[in-house]
Amino acid sequence: MPPEPDAGREPVTAYVALGANLGDAQGAVVAAMRQLDNLPHTRVSGRSSLYRTAPVDSGGPDYINAVAGIFTRLSAPDLLRSMQQLELAAGRERPYRNAPRTLDLDLLLYGDGCVDSPLLTLPHPRMTERAFVLVPLAEIAPGRVPPEALAAVARQRIERIERAG
Fold first, then answer.
1. Reported pTM
2. Which of 104, 112, 144, 157 is catalytic?
3. Active site includes 6?
4. Domain count, the chain
5. d(CA 33, CA 83)
6. SS3 content of the chain, % helix, strand, coil (to 5)
7. Catalytic residue (one of 47, 101, 130, 144)
8. Catalytic: 157?
9. Element (H, E) at 72
10. In a domain, 79, yes or no
11. At 67, which CATH number?
């Protein structure tokens, strides 16, 4: 049997933002954290608390947000495709930009890698503008979030609703 394509790749630490504001948003985020841990060649290494936040650049109910740290041997594009499959399985639709959603997974960081392609930009281009990304990321990877970045989003409403477990 031939080896799987990513089996020999060195593991990379990546960070994924999770969010939802339709249906059982909290359940969807918690389930997605478990599902990330089940991706091939991938293990969740850290989970932030869950946070409630107001929608940014969109409407609808408040979001439930979190960030997961993962070790993965998947390439960044393969990881992105796997994350999009999880979104689809959770009923994600994209009727318009920033529409309310049953599940949203964003690849924030992939090691120290930089990517700028039509399908993927790393680091995530808007992560430093959003408390719902920076606060949970700082909880599990404080060295990845400069204090001035947290200060810049300090006026955005964010409420911890469940501690990391």
1. 0.90
2. 104
3. no
4. 1
5. 11
6. 30, 25, 45
7. 101
8. no
9. strand 63-72
10. yes
11. 3.30.70.560
Point out the catalytic residue in the list 92, 112, 157, 160: 92
106 is catalytic: yes
* 4 is a domain residue: no
92 is catalytic: yes
Q: Has residue 3 been placed in a domain?
A: no
- Tell me how far apart the alpha carbons of residues 83 and 159 are, in angstroms, rounded to a whole number: 25
Tokens of 105: 């997974």
Q: Which of 9, 43, 106, 160 is catalytic?
A: 106
What tens-digit pLDDT sequence spans the chain (165 residues)? 334 556 667 899 999 999 999 889 999 999 999 999 999 999 999 999 999 998 877 778 899 999 999 999 999 999 999 999 998 887 766 545 655 678 989 999 999 988 888 888 889 889 999 999 999 999 999 999 999 999 999 999 999 998 865
- For residues 130 and 99, what is the distance between their CA atoms, to the nearest angstrom? 17
In a domain, 158, yes or no: yes
d(Cα 83, Cα 27) in Å, to the nearest integer? 17
Segments forming the whole domain that contains residue 34: 12-162
pLDDT of residue 94: 58
How many residues appear in the chain?
Answer: 165
